[in-house]
Amino acid sequence: MFVPAWPGQVSSLGYQVGPMIEEDLGITLTGEQQDRLIDYYQIDPVTGRRQVRRAAIRRPKGAGKSPEAGYCGYAELVLPVAFNGWTQTGQPIAIPRVDPWVQFAAVSEDQTDNVLVWLFDILNDPENVACAHRGINLGRTRMYLDGRPGRLEPVTASAGSREGQRVTFAALDQTESWFKSNGGVKLAGVLQRNAAKMGGWSLELQNAPELGDGSVADLTAKAAEGKAVGVMFDTREPPNHENIDMTDPAQLLPALRFAYGEAAAWVDLERLVEEILDPATDPNDAKRYYLNVAAQSSDWAFDRPKWRSLGEPDLVPKHGTLIVAGFDGSRHDDATAIVACEVETGVMWTVGCWERPDDAGDEYEHPESEIDDAVAQMFADFQVWRMYCDPPWWESTIAKWSGEHMGLDRKPAVVNWWTNRWRPIGNACQAFATAIRAGEVTHHVDGVDSDDVLTRHVCNVVKRTVNARDEQGKPLWTMRKAAHGRKIDAAMAAVLAWEARTDAVAAGVKPKKRGNAVFM
């Protein structure tokens, strides 16, 4: 039976595990990390039975979650982590597991590297003698124990069923990205059941999820809120976080300092403030990734108040100006829209938008001749470098326009730009959203703001996540309607126009002069 050796000591093997981790791996644990080890390894003061079966640590990016899983996995492989009775003075005795089986799990192979690389780098250091001292056979992606059973390995959701494996410890990385759709929820359940059968445990590493998104991170938080037996949930959320002004550095710095805790010693908080204030950063994403707060998804694709603030009447450039355009079309129900953008200034306006009239019959079709005339007039009035067109339903018409209109480089100005390519359209939507937040795009308002068709379509758009990620690994998204009947076609045309403008700027396109006059 446990007898405290000093006031405040709890019944835990963690007091012994922490110093051995530091000695073997040559690292220094923070006070918070040492305290968590004590929590992870708490045992019943009478029976010695393990108290934590499922632990989760939620911390912002860069707070050291991956190393924590790494050294816990190492401890579970070779260090004394299993209860084996009491000393005469009432202190717990620990021994290594007889047949340890450690798994570092993620929904993709790349994610398993987050933990594995850290641990392998330490053990591969020529000055580190832990492998020789503990009898570890270090492979390229796995570890085995010499002369006795024991292994450490990566697993992913795509590896098939692992039900029944005698796992003693599993680290689940980035569980905010584990969903039913990618096999993450199923994998988490299997790992947790396998560890439970062996008297082991699992450790989740989380960034804050979107509220109610059904991810493993979200489900674990709900289990902790419901006080499920054996679930330990460790998080740091800034006080009064719901009232923090995400545009005020004076409020962001102390909030970041609280969220990162002792990890703030190695994190450049001022740099994070700059990242949060960057127009490309979604405020709700910033709350999740940096302030450690589970936040509602930013369903609206674009910053609607900002967009409205960027609209003015009489912004259409004068004839002969160098422009680009975007086209998104339907034949019957959805709208068909052409949106133009001045290359030099980023001014945007609606060349034309055709929506089905409320009293239209079944035979209604958008007037192709009228749309064709609008395209011809645009090319007559302006220097059009490129017009990016989403082809479905309009392939033959777009082909005709392509043959009729040449750009300044004597190449066809009208080109196909398919919006069903997830990575390109995801990047294009993200770029347009960033341009709005940064105030780089302004737009002509035709009449009062509430009646402007482009504004109406832009404000109807919500995000639809696609199966692609950006260069930072964040999910990309495309556009969908907020509700049935709300048109968004002009918004898609605007995205294509902005993409064309970006390409024009990158290509260094300049307006063509004829004598002393701009092209007319």
List key phrases describing it.
21% strand; 21 strands; single chain; 3 domains; 35% helix; alpha/beta; eight-stranded mixed beta sheet; 16 helices; Nucleotidyltransferase, domain 5
Main structural class = alpha/beta
Number of strands: 21
- Can you give the mean pLDDT? 91
> What is the total number of structural domains?
3
The main sheet orders its strands as 5-6-7-4-8-9-1-10
Short description:
The chain has 16 helices and 21 strands. The protein has 520 residues and is of the alpha/beta class.
How would you describe the overall organization of this protein?
There is one protein chain. This protein folds into 3 domains: about 15-235, Rossmann fold (3-Layer(aba) Sandwich); about 240-290, no CATH class; about 305-515, Nucleotidyltransferase, domain 5. It contains 16 helices and 21 strands. The longest helix is centred in the C-terminal third of the chain and has 19 residues, at about 490-505. The chain has helices at about 15-25, 30-40, 65-80, 110-125, 130-135, 185-195, 215-225, 250-260, 270-275, 285-290, 305-310, 370-380, 395-405, 420-440, 455-460, 490-505, and strands at about 55-60, 80-85, 90-95, 100-105, 135-140, 145, 150-155, 170-175, 200-205, 230-235, 310, 320-330, 335-340, 345-355, 385-390, 415, 440-445, 460-470, 475-480, 515, 515-520. The termini are far apart. The radius of gyration is 29 Å and the shape is elongated.
